[in-house]
Specification:
With 83 residues, the chain is of the alpha+beta class. The protein has two helices and three strands; from the N terminus they run E-E-H-E-H. This is AAA family ATPase.
Length: 83
């Protein structure tokens, strides 16, 4: 699988940044502002309009599992109870 990011957050507006994700398990780490959250948010919700210029090849052959802030908010956080 290859992820191509363009025109989103810290990624270039004019050319694709390509990231190979061919391994069975891929772990993303890096400095703040490097784009880790952008990648995980893409896999969490690729239909989001923020990712209209981004692409991923062979994504149907994979089942990305995303555990990020958005996942926690959607599945564990109750705004009425937690403040």
């Amino acid at each position: 699988m290859e992820l191509s990011l363009k025109n989103v957050t810290s990624y270039d507006k004019n050319k694709y940044t390509k990231i190979s994700l061919e391994k069975r398990i891929n772990i993303l780490y890096g400095q703040n502002g490097a784009g880790k959250s952008t990648i995980s948010n893409f896999f969490y919700n690729p239909a989001d309009d923020d990712y209209r210029d981004c692409r991923c090849t062979n994504i149907n052959n994979y089942r990305p599992l995303v555990y990020n802030t958005k996942f926690i908010e959607d599945n564990f956080f109750d705004k009425d109870v937690q403040k």
